[in-house]
Design a protein that fits this description.
By secondary structure, the protein is mainly α. It contains five helices and four strands.
């Protein structure tokens, strides 16, 4: 399973740079913003959405997203985390070399970083 959120250490390994350089890059204007909120996904959230569907008879995407947003929580300021997909897309747009995720112990997938969700 591919990790969807990554920190400086993983970004450094992905971009094949030092942690110090990864931290510097993460502070540039063009780098993706760190994730600030996450919505819980999994059996509890799925069950609540099913219950909402049962109550209403139908559910729109907007209603489903509102249900998840209501249960989202703030991440701590440190450590900062980024979406792997966004970091991969940024690296490609910047013309940077990106390691193959299959070669990274923490990633465990043959996908490219820009393809990870």
């Amino acid at each position: 399973m591919v990790r969807r959120l990554v920190g400086i250490a993983e970004i450094a390994e992905l971009l094949q740079v030092s942690r110090q350089r990864a931290d510097q890059l993460s502070r540039t204007r063009s780098f993706p913003e760190a994730v600030r909120r996450v919505a819980p996904l999994g059996p509890p959230a799925n069950e609540e959405i099913r219950e909402l569907f049962d109550q209403l008879g139908t559910i729109t995407l907007t209603q489903a997203m509102e249900e998840l947003e209501e249960r989202a929580f703030e991440l701590p300021v440190h450590p900062r985390l980024w979406r792997l997909r966004e970091v991969g897309e940024w690296a490609r747009a910047e013309g940077r070399k990106v390691a193959n995720l299959a070669d990274l112990d923490w990633a465990g997938s043959g996908q490219n970083a820009g393809d990870a969700t």
